[in-house]
Amino acid sequence: MTATIKYADVEVGEELPEQTYPVRRLDLIRYAGASGDFNEIHWNERVAKSVGLPNVIAHGMFTMAETGRYITDWVGDPGAIVEFGVRFSAPVVVPDDDKGAEVTVSGVIKKKLDDNQVVVAITARSKGVKVLGGSTAVVRLA
Amino acid sequence: MAINRDFLGREYRAPEPYEVTRGKIREFAEAIQDPTPIYSDTATARAAGYTDVIAPPTFPIILGMAGAGQAIVDPELRLDFSMVVHREQRFRYSRPMEAGDLVECVTRISDIKALGGNELMTLDSEMLTVDGEHIVTAVNTLVVRGGAEDDGTAGR
Predict the structure, then answer these.
(1) What's the CA gap between A82 and A137, in Å, rounded?
(2) ipTM higher than the 0.90 cut
(3) In chain A, N or C terminus with fewer CB closer than 10 Å?
């Protein structure tokens, strides 16, 4: 499979369309089961508050997964990702209601490398707070 | 209590190869709400040039977490798990994981250092097929909040 975005068509500074992803309690329960990360701060409000958190927080890796989806949806081929790295700068707090939280992901083309590869700088915010910083993906375009 | 520096460079090999299955990939893709057919439909994956369905980019964390788990349970490491926060996660891919892969995972403690009053530990998990083909390297940096507080030698 090859990427649907062409290397020749992108410019440094170009912004990828912003996307918003929901994060509800049920999503965290399901992610805990699928990933094997059953840390109680991701589903038990009592435990989360006892360690000083405002409420249950999302798995950092759940936020990273949504960010990965953001990149693979843009590039059109999950196999086009060469490197992917994030720093978790603040937790995504998920209240116990039907709406939960939202994570809004944006990206900008930071650099064009050789071999049709580009560096995408990624930012993710929840309630206006930056939850991922210093985050990048290197992807191979068509 | 500071993390035991003697553990720098130690390696932990998963007790047996991890078998990547279609069902587990589908479950993971559903959990991250990603309906991309290449994760669930074999025909789509084959048309795209893969042998079978492929896994989303963060799927290898399942193996990486197990590897980190092997390291951090050792009491001699002196790591207070209740104070651990995930700080950074990186992946370097040779290719996506595919259903049918049998994956060996070796996790190495590649860095331990103080940062402010906290301790940072970095774990590199190398994931290769049983035939020795590199799939992905996962690099996981953990922070132990307040971990360096009792250590008079902690720097910045």
Answers:
(1) 7
(2) yes
(3) C
